[in-house]
Write a structure and sequence with these properties.
Blueprint: E1 2-11, E2 14-24, E3 29-33, H1 40-48, E4 55-60, E5 63-64, H2 70-76, E6 78-80, H3 93-101, H4 104-110, H5 112-116, H6 121-134, H7 149-162, E7 167-171, H8 179-194, E8 198-202, H9 206-212, E9 215-220, E10 223-228, H10 230-235, H11 237-244
Parallel strand pairs: 3-8, 3-9, 6-7, 7-8
Antiparallel strand pairs: 1-2, 1-4, 4-5, 9-10
Length: 254
């Protein structure tokens, strides 16, 4: 599904990402973890085309993505959430989902005016499913700016899913959430994966990472220092020293 080969991004003399090799297979939930400043969000921005790479390649479903702008990568099936929430604040919850779901293919297949006014049964059914995913059906007419923080997080997750991605990149989706919200997010991630979406998860909340991922890549100073199952990563000495804490590696804390 995704193959990064020798991927690097330098900002002057700073090597934010340094010769990163990473493969994500279809249907997997893969974690990308590391200390602050280790290059995780930069990697997401390179995959999505926000940053141009200094060296290396990004291949998605076998296609070279280098040089393609973000909107072309989105159309290819790459979607993301953001570390800092970026909703359309003056649109309603329903409209945020509708805008994300819209595409030239939709307009061509269903006609411009029906699609524009959200009048097709399929459109409304899909958005109803997304509202259910986010547990926001009771707030579909509420402006996004009026939602509580946790609700905005859920809406952003659903909005990314609305683009019908093949690969969903989640950039710290649990930031600021309490224990119950993290448990709910875990269920949402599995629900989206079970619908046929591959997921790459960047996260500091180890409870979430260790609970949902099949494989984890660990970055430190822009370089990959470990890759394996959650158990293998927890036992890795380099990871314990760089990120998880060598004094008590088994407690899953960061």
């Amino acid at each position: 599904m995704l193959e990064l080969s020798g991927l690097s991004k330098h900002f002057g003399g700073v090597k934010a990402v340094d010769e990163l090799d990473l493969t994500v297979n279809e249907g997997e939930i893969v974690g990308l973890i590391g200390p602050n400043g280790s290059g995780k969000s930069t990697t997401i921005n390179l995959i999505c085309g926000v940053f141009g790479e200094t060296a290396g390649t990004v291949r998605f479903r076998g296609e070279l993505m280098n040089g393609k702008p973000p909107h072309q990568r989105l159309r290819a099936g790459l979607a993301r959430t953001f570390q800092n929430i970026r909703l359309f604040p003056n649109l309603t919850v329903w409209q945020n989902l509708w805008v994300a779901q819209n595409s030239p293919q939709d307009v061509s297949a269903r006609g411009f005016l029906p699609r524009w006014f959200g009048a097709t049964r399929r459109t409304r059914r899909e958005i109803a499913d997304l509202l259910d995913l986010a547990d926001l059906g009771h707030k579909d007419d509420e402006l996004a700016s009026n939602l509580a923080f946790g609700e905005q997080r859920r809406l952003e997750f659903a909005r990314a899913a609305a683009t019908r991605p093949r690969l969903l990149l989640l950039d710290e989706p649990a930031a600021g959430m309490n224990q119950q919200e993290i448990a709910d997010l875990s269920r949402r991630i599995h629900r989206v994966r079970d619908s046929g979406v591959t997921i790459l998860l960047v996260e500091h909340v180890m409870e979430l990472v260790m609970g949902v991922t099949e494989q984890i890549a660990v970055l430190n100073f822009g370089r990959k220092i470990a890759f394996g199952t959650p158990g293998e990563v927890q036992r890795d000495k380099a990871v314990q020293e760089a990120y998880l804490g060598a004094s008590d590696p088994g407690d899953g804390s960061a």
